[in-house]
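Minutes, structural biology subgroup

Action item carried over from last meeting: produce the C-alpha cell record for Alkanesulfonate monooxygenase (Enhydrobacter aerosaccus). EB confirmed the sequence was re-checked against the source entry. Recorded below for completeness.
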Amino acid sequence: MQRRLEFGWFLPTAGDTTAYGVPAAQVPSSLALFDRIVGAAEAAGFEYMLVPVQTACWEAWISSAMMVARSKSIRMLVAARPSYINPVLLAKMISTFDQLSGGRICINLIAGQSETENAAEGIKWGKEERYEIMEEEVSILKALWTTHGPLHFDGKFHQLKGAQIRPYPLQKPHPKFYLGGGSRQAWEISARHADVHLFWGDTYDRIRANMAEIRTMAAGHGREREIGFGMRLQIVCRPTEKEAWDFAHELVAHASESQKTFVKQHFATSEANRRVRELAAIGETIEPHLWTGITQVRPGAGIAVVGDPEQCADTLQKFIDLGCHSFCLSGYLHDEEAERFGKWVMPILKEHNRERMAA
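Output recorded by EB:
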C-alpha cells in the first residue's frame, strides 16, 4: 500500500539562528517569530508542525494551543512524555484540543533524550522504566478515547477505577501517534502503537533494514499494515550547491568547544543520539548531500540534506522510494527555509509523486 505523502515543519521555540555561537545571528523566541514560521510553513504546503520539548524551549502545549488558534490548517505535533502529565488529564487535554481545533493535533511520543534534564525536572524513572510508563499511558489514552463507560486499569505505574473523560476526540478512532526513538524499547512501542515511526537521518541501507525490522515487530501485534515510516531531517537548500554548502559550513563554524562538549555529554544515554554521533565519526557526509555537521552543535535530529533544489528533492525521493511517507523537516532560518522548500523543492516532489501529494 502506498501511503499519501505528508510534510511537517519545526517550530524552534528555543529561538532561531543563522550561525551557532554568534550572538548577532540569534533570533530570540517570540510570538512574532512563531507567527512568521507557522505562516510560512502553511503557505509552503506543510501539514504539521513539530513543537519541541527541552529545558531551553518554551512550553509545548501552551505554544501549540496559541499557534493553532492563530493559523488556518496546520496540525500541531506535540510531545507526550511519560510521567509528566496524569494520563487521564492528558487524554482530556488532547481530546479537547482535537475538538476545539477541528482535528489539528497529533502526538509525539518521547521518553526523553537527557538523563540530566530528567533528573533536574524531578523525573525519577530510568530510561527502561520510562518506556514501560509510556506503554501504560498510551494504552490508557487509547482506551479512554474509545471506551464508552468507566475504564478500569491495573498497571505497574497507573491504577484507574472507573475513569471517564469528555469530550471524545474528533479524529477517529483518535489522533495519530508519532515516535522517533532509536532503541529496541522505542521500536517496540512503535510496533504496538505508532502510526508513524520517524527515523533520524541515516544511510539508505540502515533505514531500509530498520524499516524491515520494525515492520516485522509490528506484525507480531497484527499492525504491519498500520505502521508507517518517515524521516526527521534538516534542510539546507539554496539556488546552487555551492551556496548551500557555504551556508551549511558557516552555520556551525563559530560554535564553541563548550557547546559541542555539552551536546556530546548531556545527551550521551540516548540511543538515537549515540547513532548520530557514530555517523558523524564516519565523516562530513554519510550519503551524497546528507551532512552530519549540525550534529556537533545540536542534539537530536542533526543530519541535514544539503544542495540545490534538484539535489534536495532527489535525496528525499530516495527515502520515499525506500518506503517513507512522512517528512518532518527544519532549516535556518525556519521561516525562510520553509519558503524556499515550498517554492523550489515541493514542486519537484509533486511532479514525481503526483498521486501521493495534495494538489
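Discussion: The chain is about 45% helix and 20% strand.
Next step: EB to file the record with the rest of the batch.
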